[in-house]
Write a structure and sequence with these properties.
With about 110 residues, the chain is mainly alpha-helical. The protein is built from two helices and no strands. The model has no long low-confidence stretch (mean pLDDT about 85). Keywords: Membrane, Transmembrane, Transmembrane helix.
Length: about 110
């Protein structure tokens, strides 16, 4: 999970707690009704956090999938490029070997 998502979740949780605390302090209702409101606020906060976590997981999954595809494409490009370079090196080495064989043949005469 990214740092930004962690900050959002922390802010959301802090807001829910502060809201519940302020609600308790300024509640003109009786205790039973106040407890019911607090419970409702806590359930809503839990649902909000759960929804935020689900969204964060989905975003993380999308990002991970995109990065995987990007990595695979770059790896394929690199391997392809290396293959061409290896072929060029082999051709150059074969040419050098042929030149050496010709020189060796001349020296053998």
């Amino acid at each position: 999970m990214s740092n930004n998502t962690g900050n959002i979740l922390t802010a959301l949780l802090t807001g829910a707690l502060v809201g519940a605390g302020v609600g308790i302090l300024y509640a003109p209702d009786k205790g039973k009704r106040t407890r019911k409101k607090i419970k409702k606020s806590a359930v809503k906060a839990k649902d909000d956090i759960s929804q935020s976590l689900t969204h964060a997981k989905q975003e993380f999954s999308k990002t991970a999938d995109a990065k995987k595809v990007e990595f695979e494409e770059k790896l394929e490009d690199t391997l392809s490029s290396m293959s061409y370079k290896a072929d060029d090196i082999l051709v150059a080495l074969e040419k050098k070997l042929e030149d050496l064989r010709k020189k060796n043949a001349q020296l053998q005469k």
